[in-house]
Amino acid sequence: MRDTTAPLLDVAGLKTVFHTRSGDVHAVNSISFALEAGELVGVVGESGSGKSVTMMSLMDLLPRSAEIVGGEVLFEGRDVRGMTRAELLQLRGRDVGFVFQDPMTSLNPVFTVGRQITERLRKHMGMTKAEAKVRAAELLGLVGISDPERRLSDYPHQFSGGMRQRVMIAIALACDPKLLIADEPTTALDVTIQAQIIELVRDLRRKLDMGIIWITHDLGVVAGIADRVIVMYAGQIVEQGPVRDLFARPQHPYTRALLETLPKVTGERSERLHTIEGQPPSLGDEPTSCPFAPRCAHAFARCMTENPFRVDVGGGHDVACWWDPETGEMRDV
Amino acid sequence: MFAFTIRRLLFAIPTLLAISFIIFAILDLAPSDPTGNLPLTIPPEVRAQIRSSLGLDEPFPIRYALWLNQFFINEPLNMIEGWTGWTIGDGERLRVTSWATRSPVVDLIVERMPQTLWVVGMSQIIAILIAVPIGVISAYKQYSWFDQIGTFVSMLGFSIPTFFTGLVFIVLFSVHLKWFPSIYDTNHVIDSWSSFVFQIKQMIMPTMVLALATAAQLSRYMRASMLDNLQQDYVRTARAKGLSERVVVTIHVLRNSMIPVVTVIALNVPTIFGGAIITEQIFRVNGIGQLLIIGIQGADIPLVQTLTFIFAVLIVMFNLIADVLYGILDPRIRYE
Ligand SMILES: Nc1ncnc2c1ncn2[C@@H]1O[C@H](COP(=O)(O)OP(=O)(O)O)[C@@H](O)[C@H]1O
Ligand SMILES: [Mg+2]
Hints:
The complex is a heterodimer of chains A (333) and B (336).
Chain A: E1 9-20, E2 23-35, E3 40-44, H1 51-58, E4 66-75, E5 78-79, H2 85-95, E6 96-99, H3 113-124, H4 129-142, H5 148-151, H6 161-173, E7 179-183, H7 191-208, E8 211-216, H8 219-225, E9 228-233, E10 236-242, H9 243-248, H10 253-261, E11 311-312, E12 318-319
Parallel strand pairs in A: 3-8, 3-9, 6-7, 7-8
Antiparallel strand pairs in A: 1-2, 1-4, 4-5, 9-10, 10-12, 11-12
Helix pairs in contact in A: 3-4, 4-6
Chain B: H1 2-29, H2 44-53, H3 60-84, H4 105-140, H5 145-159, H6 162-176, H7 193-230, H8 233-240, H9 245-283, H10 288-297, H11 301-329, H12 331-334
Bound molecules: adenosine-5'-diphosphate and magnesium ion (MG).
Residues 51-52, 183-184 of chain A line the site of magnesium ion (MG).
């Protein structure tokens, strides 16, 4: 059944809408991307750009008010949206691991962390209680929690934020997933803990060889760990490419602005952070023009009437923009 | 947790003493005369004798001290003797005596307690069995027709007083349908299958009136608590682990949602005893609620004092139970 030539994950034209009391919100607008087995893709974009909703849409983990209105999600060539309930649970349980942003609220406060790990192992790996406990302790050890056997019987509130995020990672890794989706896993943590978690994932990635989607609003983090970067804006992918290429020749004005907001390691400390002027658009309607145009210094008349499609700029790098940074002119497409 | 419980128990003692003083003092201010209901032909000297034999000549502090001694020392000792068959001391003690019947108040209460406990206890169990599933389903299927009907029905249950539902029940099920007796026969003895069935039948209406009123309220709490928990991040984590909706809702969400609801249930129990007063009147159940009404009508101060104090004890006790349950259910409290 399994298509071995297919990428690990292949998403095409994904659209997700929230139905709210004050009207619809088009949070994800025709997202397409692919992820190869063992690849680490960083997804960046301002808060509200649709990163989380995109990832929740993949495994149908959306809140009740959200609806996936179009698109295709293939996992190893299998159509996720067409799966039966049982197949979907199996996919979530065995093949994909999620780590969420806020470790303080992502664990169930009334169950021990041991139970929250073994629960998954027993359901999806068919382990007995005793086997699952051994494996759970092993996992806690793997993510760098000391004295793991004893800590299995502790409750989440007995762990610090960073330690809880390690527990979340242990849960995510429990069934040797092929894909790990980490949604801003370090945003809620302080800087030193953040560095430790990043180091941990980099290390685990070498050991476990899984595909990773790492969501962050911090391009600096992406530069250190990703193979490829996807830049999102207003529920769309505006640019994506191999990490070196994207940092070397950013195409989209939004990506360029994001790069400028990065603190320069070499520059004087007092250098003021650039921020991007203006607000992201409201997503009440599906965009019919470039959503970045109102904030863009290079917008053409065409940008106001037509939403740019993604243009290949070579080297596996593409951009949804008509402005060519090399010439300063409109691209010839 | 154990130390916490003990500490709370110790704190309860001064609280109860203060309450007992207030109850005693307020009822003592009431202008009532234990000889007031006696025939007019009894001469004033005899009336004075009766009053002094009841200890009413003594000043207030002495009477309060005597009552305390009788209630907290003599009565418990009597009970211990009754249960174990021992004799402690000479077995002769002054007891809190009813003015109306001249029998010890505690004996009256003990006689009537089982009826009330049956009705209240069963109604609580039934209320929980009704309210929890309704609350869970209403929250999980928020705004569905089930939820809408549930909201409407519990609004009704909330706003219609029990004496009205009681009367409607009697008219409908006793008078028209003749399914259940309208008057509770307390002397009924269960010695066969058919007498057991009769007991169930006569309990159904008083129990259901209380149960429905409680369930209306509880199902709202349950629904609100479930809704609150359903949107928590840990629910998404549970789903992301590939757990089925059934496990996510009935284990992860329900367990968290029960924490505040269990507290509400425990805190609500004394109120139900209060509600039982009315229900017992309607269905003529001779429980402690009815006893209290009789005591108030007959100006039987010792009886009213004792019953009121027992209600106060219930409130304090169930507050304590609520706290302890909270600690048991919520590890964040337990480990403090
Ligand atoms: N529960 C929700 N109801 C309505 N709109 C939502 C909800 N969750 C997210 N959105 C909207 O979807 C868009 C994308 O949100 P999100 O994916 O969380 O952004 P990001 O993760 O990039 O910060 C935002 O505009 C946000 O307003
Ligand atoms: Mg997010």
